[in-house]
Amino acid sequence: MPPVQLDSPTWSAGSGAEDLIETRIASVLGLKQFMQGPIRTLLIKGLAGTGKTTVALEILKAAGKGKGAYVSSRVPLDLLETHIPAMKETLHNQEFLDIRLEDASSVLDLIMQLTEPKKFRTIVFDSWDGLAKELDQRERLRAEKTLMALAHNSGAQLVFVSEEPGATTIDYLVDGILELVTVEEQDRTVREFIIHKLRGTKIPQRKYIFTLLDGKFTFFGPYAIPDYGKVSKIAQRPDIGESYSFGSGALDRLFGGMIPGSTLSIEYDENVPYSALRAIEYPPIINFLSRGRSAILLPLPGANDEIINSILARAVGKSVVNDRLRILNILRTSDLETASLPKNATPQEIHEIVTNETAGLRKRSMDKTVLLVKSVSALENLFASDLDSLLEVTSQEIITLQQSHDAHILFLPKDSPIRSRILSMSSSYAKLFVRDGTVLMFGVKPHTGIYALQHLEDPISPSLTQLV
Amino acid sequence: MEDDFGTTFTSAVHGGLDKILGQSGADAVLMHMKMTNNLPDPAEFHRKLLALFGPQGTLSLERAIVKDLAIRLRWSLSVLNIEDTFDFSATMRALEKGVRS
After folding, report:
1. Per the CB < 8 Å rule, is A135 touching B24?
2. pLDDT at A1 over 60
3. Structural domain total, chain B
4. Is residue A431 within 8 Å of residue A265, measured between CB atoms?
5. Contact: A145, B29; criterion CB under 8 Å
6. Structural domain that includes position A152
7. pTM of this prediction?
8. In the listed set A170, A201, A220, which residue is the last one of a domain according to the structure?
9. Full 3-state SS string of B37-82
10. A245, A262, B17, B44: most buried, per Cβ within 10 A?
11. Which residue among B27, B51, B53 sits closest to A149, beta carbon to beta carbon?
């Protein structure tokens, strides 16, 4: 499989994208307050490689052209530009001071020179502890107090970058503390920032996921349910060679399309919002229908058929939905009538009905192919006392489907009792879960990177931004 | 006597600043004010401190310097009245005058 290249996240030129990062940081870190007053001193801490310098440079960028200074005790300008090329312009637009060979007195003098004229709004000190480690404890505390006093008098914001993970003397002096960490999720690295302190600023959430994709800091707020009222007709996506498109560029790039006869299982945690699952459920159905094919949907429990119909009708047209889509909701009496399913149907009977429905839809499909999208949870709820039969029928379906040109997507709850059996039969397998309010997704089979799922482009298709 | 006071005053400036800002902070302030070798003029010194540290920070630093100087000159702090409204230049002049007499 070629390397996954997802939609670059997300923003189009001329849409204010260039300001988006500042806006996002501002809304999360209270940077607006940081820029305007209460937060005069901010400590950004974390181990090496966690993204401290990139975040500090984003804050510096937000200070405005020529109003920021970057004081480096670690690397010279040319090397920093090589490390973080996306920040080259920011570095050129702001003052850069190389203090690698300076002593503490000279550095404090330099800070006085920067703060006294009240010219700079933001001064980044990267890193403070590189210098502070040369001082004894009492001397360090006094030097830090000096810096705080200079910052408070001048009105400039001082941003200290530190690689000391534990609490140090400066932790008690600064107005805000931001810690950057990396955590392992299923052998994949996820970056997280933690707001420990932000004096005078309301902190609605303390932990956020972020990425350094393209060398830029982008954080992810809590998952937001899309507004399906904004659904409009969606352009169909062509097949990808022998594979069917998922109807979403992001999903196609992640999985490389759906191979005819294959089964994709989407495993999800109990706290994944259904709307996030629908971002994977709807696009392939819409694309199949748009391309003249047929689809069968057994929705997630609690789904409302009328709403599903209405959303899909807006995307592909009412007549198409009526003609080539069947929604089987087997959990409610009214839907039993719709789907012509007997009330006490056995798994085998359901299978027969689905087979018959598929045969009918196949005739109306332009190339006789059908997409089956099913919620395993819905079936489990119905056949809780007969899971062996359910598994038997599902296995039979998967094997039969392998001989056809149909495609199969199963939505599988993480705690499903038949989970491992289903997964072992699936040709592809992806997982969705929530961390810090952000919905994350990755492919297990095939192995992919990890992505944050949002709805940035339209309410139906997912936007996937890689976490790097 | 004047030289003695000047030397003591310079030492007190270093000592007072050191107590609050640390050795590196004190050195940095004097380096920044270009007063590493010269006897600071109290009024000019006061203005420069104000520019760097503001009124409250300056008050703390000047009190520390006066305390250090008083100890060096064996003066009682009670006669210097440094707790309420406090004029650094006037206090320096008073101390210098006292030493001379």
Report:
1. yes
2. no
3. 1
4. no
5. no
6. 17-220
7. 0.83
8. A220
9. CCCCCHHHHHHHHHHHHHHHHHHHHHHHHHHHHHHHHCCCHHHCCC
10. B17
11. B53
